[in-house]
Amino acid sequence: MTRAVGSDVILNSQVAQALAVIGDRWAFLVIRDVYQGVRQFEALRRLRGAARGTLASRLKTLVKNGILYKNPYRDSPVRYEYRLTDKGLDLYPVVLMIWSWETTWGQACAQPRALIHTGCGHSMHPRYRCRHCHVALSIRDVTYSVGRNPAPAQKVPPRFHRRSKRPAVAGGARQRSMQYLDIIGDRWTALVVAAAFFGLRRYDQILDGIGIATNILSDRLKLLVDAGVLKRSPYQDKPVRYEYHLSAKGRDIYASTVAMHEWANRWIIGKGEQPIKLRHKCGEAFESEVVCDACDKLLVPSEVRGSDA
Ligand SMILES: [Zn+2]
Ligand SMILES: [Zn+2]
């Protein structure tokens, strides 16, 4: 059943708040690169071919939002490298689930190619599951409720209104090889996907649900249908009207989204009232754990390394 969800609910959800703190696709790329050990300004800039100003402003925001900190690695003259704070390190489940999605759906563009769990020595895929019943997360097994005192809806910063025409990662036609960051690194695209997770299927429902301009909504729906994240099917003739449903590829974005939701609970919401509460089919409030699919052990950042072999 579709429930009426207003923009106050979606725009205040933990995911929308996390996206506001983490930033855009460049910020995500920086976080991922720092995870992989690239820490100095020039190295980060060379890796992505980023403009100096763009990179500098993203680094500044990530430091301001407590995700990175500047660590001096040389005295006279003093030079800094960027490291993840505890809050930044705790984005690890998000980074792992993005990797997992790109490995499955991103047409072999995932970086690194493989992940090794040094705990067991095997190449592995991270498995995101319920900490209570150990069943892998599926959107169909989760219900949500809205907290009693949702804060007033945040204004979406204007810089999110326009979608860059430039692919986030080099190579490939933009739409067919849509990368994860093309979805989640553009806030409106991410919110349209979030609306689908809340069960909004029709144009007008989505329009009301996230308070988006009609031309932007049409653009993002087309992008997501072309990329195979949403499927369009008619629900009415004369005039023909369509509903938008998540495909398997779209449903698979859910794990990384819930990982962001949980991160926001730990670092943004704190002890306050959660705007959205998730419940798993086992009856418990949904809380995740991420395990190695080869040995079933919990994954910790220090025991996972990338391999391009
Ligand atoms: Zn469960
Ligand atoms: Zn393992």
Which SSEs are present, and which pair or pack?
Blueprint: H1 7-11, H2 14-22, H3 25-35, H4 41-48, H5 52-64, E1 68-74, E2 79-84, H6 86-89, H7 92-105, E3 114-117, E4 122-124, E5 126-130, E6 142-146, H8 180-184, H9 187-197, H10 203-210, H11 214-226, E7 230-236, E8 241-246, H12 248-251, H13 254-269, E9 276-280, E10 288-292, E11 304-307
Antiparallel strand pairs: 1-2, 3-4, 3-11, 5-10, 6-9, 7-8
Helix pairs in contact: 2-13, 7-13, 9-11
The structure holds zinc ion (ZN) (2 copies).
Architecture overview:
The strands form five sheets. The chain has a three-stranded antiparallel sheet with strand order 4-3-11, with no helix packed on it. A two-stranded antiparallel ribbon has the order 1-2. It has a domain at 7-22 and 86-254: Arc Repressor Mutant, subunit A, CATH 1.10.10.10. Helix content is 39%, strand content 18%. The longest helix is centred in the C-terminal third of the chain and has 16 residues, at 254-269. Residues 155-176 have low confidence and may be disordered. With 309 residues, the protein is α+β, with helices and mostly antiparallel strands. It binds zinc ion (ZN) (2 copies). One zinc ion is lined by residues 130, 132-133, 135, 280, 282, 284. One zinc ion binds next to loops.
